[in-house]
Design goal:
- The protein is mainly α.
- Helices cover about 70% and strands about 0% of the residues.
- The protein has a two-stranded antiparallel sheet.
- The two termini are about 40 Å apart.
Length: about 290
């Protein structure tokens, strides 16, 4: 639950901040008549993400168990890569995203009507596609089910995170609250490294079940007698860190091989001094009264 909530909150806040910056800049620069193009782009990005989600569900109904596990394992590994890229990108971009977006808006506004639509589609769609793939993978992990056989709980958690991010984004836009976005993305980024490690390990397990990778019955540890998968503690650890009471050697090696270098690089990245940024680059501008 918490892992999916964090994904929804973080990705949703990134997308909300992007939209807030685009809208605020158009309003303050006297180009409010171009706002419908932004909303068309946002709607198009959401429609594409929904279509991909439905497509993944329908695809799963046509596949054999082995094919499901191969596709599921591969996409879980891809999802872990997406999370990793997202974490490092936002760690560096949080200070300058405003200036970059304003430059894109200026360039697009001088071109065709589709220019601003494309800016919104790419900005929001990137976050949406990442969220779709990550949540799909996490949903399968939470249920242990085959592709397409999912429960609503992980999705509800993600939707709550997205809803929270929309509220926070709106309040930031209106100037009602002020948060340090760099610190926010630093702390959530550190937590999501462990979420991504769990996604990666689960992908390895899927490929082991499909027979693509060896060692399915070779366990690094088995604590199912102490922490059962169905207990409240097992469910909590599974939901937050994707912990499995029965973890194979290959899963454990992949988890450690991911967490140690990625966490080390992340800590170095966030501790690296950055050039001073203007307040407009760290939070959405207030709309003109």
């Amino acid at each position: 639950m918490l892992g999916n909530f964090l994904i929804g909150l973080r990705e949703g806040l990134e997308a909300t901040l992007v939209v807030s910056i685009l809208v605020a800049y158009l309003v303050k620069s006297g180009r409010s008549h171009l706002l419908p193009r932004i909303w068309v782009g946002v709607a198009a990005a959401i429609a594409v993400c929904v279509a991909i989600t439905v497509g993944l569900g329908l695809l799963g109904r046509q596949l054999t168990f082995q094919s499901q596990e191969i596709i599921g394992g591969t996409l879980s590994i891809v999802a872990a890569a997406f999370v990793t890229w997202m974490i490092f990108w936002m760690a560096g971009a949080a200070r300058t995203i405003g200036a970059e977006l304003r430059g894109q808006v200026d360039a697009a506004a001088q071109g065709s009507a589709l220019g601003l639509v494309l800016v919104a589609v790419l900005a929001v769609g990137r976050e949406g596609l990442e969220t779709t793939l990550i949540l799909w993978s996490n949903t399968r992990q939470a249920t242990g089910s085959a592709l397409g056989e999912q429960t609503a709980t992980p999705v509800v958690a993600a939707l709550l995170g997205i809803a929270t991010s929309i509220v926070l984004g709106y309040l930031l836009y209106r100037g009602a609250i002020s948060i340090n976005l760099t610190k926010f993305f630093t702390w959530t980024g550190a937590l999501l490294i462990f979420v991504a490690a769990g996604v990666l390990a689960y992908g390895i397990h899927d490929l082991q079940e499909a027979g693509v990778l060896p060692g399915l019955n070779s366990y690094a540890f088995d604590v199912s007698g102490v922490i059962s998968a169905g207990s409240w503690l097992g469910t909590l650890l599974k939901g937050i860190f994707n912990f499995s009471p029965q973890t194979t050697w290959l899963e454990a090696i992949a988890w450690v091989a991911y967490v140690v270098p990625v966490l080390t690089l992340f800590v170095r990245r966030v501790r690296k001094p950055a050039a001073p940024a203007s307040p407009a680059d760290t939070q959405p501008e207030r709309a003109a009264a």
